[in-house]
Amino acid sequence: MTTNEHTAEAAPEIARRGILKKTGGALSVLFASKTATIGLIIVLFWVGSALFAPWVTKYSPTEQDWKAPNQGPSMAHPLGTDELGRDLWSRLAYGARIVLVVMPVTEKIWLPGGTAIWGVFASLLFGATLGLLGGYRGGWTDEIIMRLLDAMMSIPIILLYLIIVAAMGASAVNVVIAIAIVGTPGVARLVRGLALDIRTRDYIRAAETRGESTAYIMFVEILPNAKGPIIIDAMLRVGYAIFAMGTLGFLGLGLPPPSPDWGSMVAKGREFILSGSPWAALWPSLAIASLVVGLNLLADGLREETMRYQ
C-alpha cells in the first residue's frame, strides 16, 4: 500500500479526532465556569421540555377540563389549570417548543428552530452583513449605514416592536420579522467594531494583495475571526427576543390564540390573581424569567472564560 493510500485512509480518522478535540475543548471551557454551567442546566431543562413535550405531559395544550378551571397544583395537574381548565404544565412545555424548537409558519407548516431563534438568526444575518460592509469599506458606505441604523436605534425598542407587529398583524412570522428589524442595528454596531480592528491585521493585507473580492474578505477572513463575541452576543439576544415575545403576547400582539404563548398566558392569568388563583400568571412569568436568566448566565460565563484564555 502506498503512502498516498495510507494518508487517504487516515484522513477521516484524523478529521474525527480533530472534531472530538475541538468539542472537548469547548466543553471544558463551558464547564470551567460555574455561572455558565448553571445557565446551561436551565436552558437544557427548557429545551428538553420543548423537545419531549408530548412525552412529559399527558395533555395537549388546548385540551380543556371544564370541571377543574383555575385549580392549583394537584396530582392530575402538577402546576394547576387556567380559566378554561387547560393544564398549565402542558401549555408551558408546548409554549417552549414555539420559542426554542419549532416556528409555526401556518397551521400546517412548521419550521425547525424556535421563533426566538429564527428572529435572532435573521438579525445576525442582516446585522453582520451591514456591520462587515461598513467596518471594512469605511468612508461614505460606513457613514450611510451607521446613520440609518442610529436613526432606528433612536426609537424606543418596545415602541418599535409595537409599530411593526401592529402594522403587519400578530403571527409567528411577523414576530420573527420584528425581532430581526429591532436586533439588526445592535448586531451591526458590534460587528462593525470588530471589523474595524480585524481589517488592520496582516492576513487581511495578504488577502487584498492576492486580489480577493470584498465579499471573500468580509465573510471568509473577517467574520470567522470575529465569531466568539458574536456567538456570545447572540445568546444574549435570544434572551431579549424571548422577553420581547412575552411582552408582545402580554399586550395581545404575540401568537394568536389558542397558541400556548407565555406572554398571553400571563395576561389572561393576571385577571384571576386577586380571586385566589395566581398560578396561571405565576408559572409562565417564572418560565420567561428563568429562561432569560439561564441564557444570560450561559453567555456571561462563556465570556468570562474566553477572556481568561485571551
UniProtKB/TrEMBL annotation:
Record localization: Cell membrane
Keyword field: Cell membrane, Membrane, Transmembrane, Transmembrane helix, Transport
Protein name: ABC transporter permease
Lineage, top ranks: Bacteria, Pseudomonadati, Thermodesulfobacteriota, Desulfobacteria, Desulfobacterales
PROSITE patterns: ABC_TM1
Bilayer topology term: Multi-pass membrane protein
Main localization category: membrane
Transmembrane portions of the chain: 26-47, 116-136, 148-166, 172-191, 234-255, 280-299
Domain of life of the native organism: Bacteria
Membership in a protein family: Belongs to the binding-protein-dependent transport system permease family.
ABC transmembrane type-1 domain residues: 109-299
GO cellular component labels: plasma membrane
Database matches in SUPFAM superfamilies: MetI-like
